[in-house]
């Protein structure tokens, strides 16, 4: 067989993103919505999809959906860009603001895709680790951007996987302290009920990332969007893939966005269940529960890897961070349906009882 020369050097040592999605009865590992879109929404989607021409390229900019999002956020079309999931827009960010000789400020532990994108684009990744309680080390971040060499920062609010939102007052301070582009990742903001949208007009360096994958039950469709000032959107337009949001996804997004009020009870249920799960977990001996503004609960316990296996053997898939840097001993459990949550808490309780003999 002929040989192939080595891939680009920045790929050496990079591990492909692995969501560790295994067959299970209760999927509590990927922060998805436990409820699929309801039958009525699905019926409207089916009808509209049947009318989509498949032989034509989609609208490259998904302008119908873009206009709906713009209007709902009190913005012009020029301030919105729709992408193939938030993931695509995060990669576009690294392409547009990163690159050789450029620097990204990361606040770990956080979503691992940010650092991977920096590596892929030969962007230097500067870490300002969170404090012991996972709060942002605000003074250290402000001091680091003051050096003037940071090109972009990502602040995740609420932060995945630790759970809490970033203080708005801190984001405001950060935006004022630097001309670096600050992306506030609001993938889970529907569960925290807090957004930095009001800061957009006064801060040209702010980008807000959102997704349809969580509150709107569309992880399978791949739709995300950014809100930013037009000059920033213009730069994203230069690097994006021309037809990344296919015609079917555009139609699904339009229907779901039109009918988004129907998702509100599901969001409320998740918020209520989050409190119930956290409270139940706090009664378990040896379990530390971290406060959460999102649709999961992060916890730590001794023997977390064994607990993960015990849960998985009983059909419950949660995310194992027990060997991840700064997250030693941690598991992340997405808030599921009340039944799934009961099964999760009950099974973890059984594990602890068995282990403690
Ligand atoms: N940001 C954060 C913090 C996330 O957790 C996720 C999903 N795992 C995303 C962005 C991207 O979501 P999606 O590509 O499904 O829109």
UniProtKB/TrEMBL annotation:
Gene3D superfamilies: Aspartate Aminotransferase, domain 1, Type I PLP-dependent aspartate aminotransferase-like (Major domain). PROSITE patterns: AA_TRANSFER_CLASS_2. InterPro entries: Aminotrans_II_pyridoxalP_BS (IPR001917), Aminotransferase_I/II_large (IPR004839), HisP_aminotrans (IPR005861), PyrdxlP-dep_Trfase (IPR015424), PyrdxlP-dep_Trfase_major (IPR015421), PyrdxlP-dep_Trfase_small (IPR015422). It catalyses: L-histidinol phosphate + 2-oxoglutarate = 3-(imidazol-4-yl)-2-oxopropyl phosphate + L-glutamate. It comes from the Bacteria. Keywords: Amino-acid biosynthesis, Aminotransferase, Histidine biosynthesis, Pyridoxal phosphate, Transferase. The modification N6-(pyridoxal phosphate)lysine is found at residue 214. PANTHER family: HISTIDINOL-PHOSPHATE AMINOTRANSFERASE, HISTIDINOL-PHOSPHATE AMINOTRANSFERASE-RELATED. Belongs to the class-II pyridoxal-phosphate-dependent aminotransferase family. Histidinol-phosphate aminotransferase subfamily. Homodimer. This is Histidinol-phosphate aminotransferase.
């Amino acid at each position: 067989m002929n040989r192939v020369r080595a891939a680009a050097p920045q790929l050496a040592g990079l591990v492909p993103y692995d969501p560790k999605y295994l067959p299970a009865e209760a999927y509590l590992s990927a922060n998805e919505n436990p409820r699929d879109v309801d039958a009525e929404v699905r019926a409207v989607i089916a009808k509209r999809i049947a009318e989509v021409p498949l032989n034509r390229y989609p609208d490259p900019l998904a302008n119908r959906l873009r206009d709906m999002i713009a209007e709902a956020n009190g913005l012009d079309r020029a301030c919105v860009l729709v992408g193939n999931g938030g993931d695509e827009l995060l990669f576009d960010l690294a392409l547009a603001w990163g690159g050789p000789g450029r620097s990204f400020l990361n606040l770990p532990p956080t979503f691992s895709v940010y650092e991977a994108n920096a590596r892929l684009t030969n962007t230097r990744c500067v870490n300002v680790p969170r404090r012991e309680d996972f709060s942002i080390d605000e003074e250290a971040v402000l001091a680091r951007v003051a050096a003037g060499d940071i090109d972009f920062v990502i602040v995740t609010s609420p932060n995945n996987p630790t759970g809490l939102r970033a203080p708005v007052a801190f984001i405001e301070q950060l935006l004022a302290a630097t001309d670096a582009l600050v992306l506030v990742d609001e993938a889970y903001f529907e569960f925290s009920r807090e957004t930095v949208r009001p800061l957009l007009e006064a801060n040209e360096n702010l980008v807000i990332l959102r997704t349809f994958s969580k509150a709107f039950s569309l992880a399978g469709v791949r739709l995300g969007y950014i809100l930013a000032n037009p000059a920033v959107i213009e730069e994203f337009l230069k690097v994006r893939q021309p037809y990344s949001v296919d015609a079917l996804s555009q139609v699904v997004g339009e229907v779901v966005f039109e009918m988004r009020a129907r998702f509100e009870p599901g969001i409320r249920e998740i918020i209520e269940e989050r409190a119930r799960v956290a409270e139940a977990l706090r009664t378990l001996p040896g379990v530390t529960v971290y406060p959460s503004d999102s649709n999961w609960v992060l916890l730590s316990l001794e023997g977390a890897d064994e607990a993960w296996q015990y849960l998985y053997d009983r059909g419950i898939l949660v995310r194992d961070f027990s060997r991840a840097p700064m997250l030693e001993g941690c598991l992340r459990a997405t808030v599921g349906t009340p039944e799934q949550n009961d099964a999760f808490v009950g099974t973890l309780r059984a594990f602890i009882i068995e282990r403690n003999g």
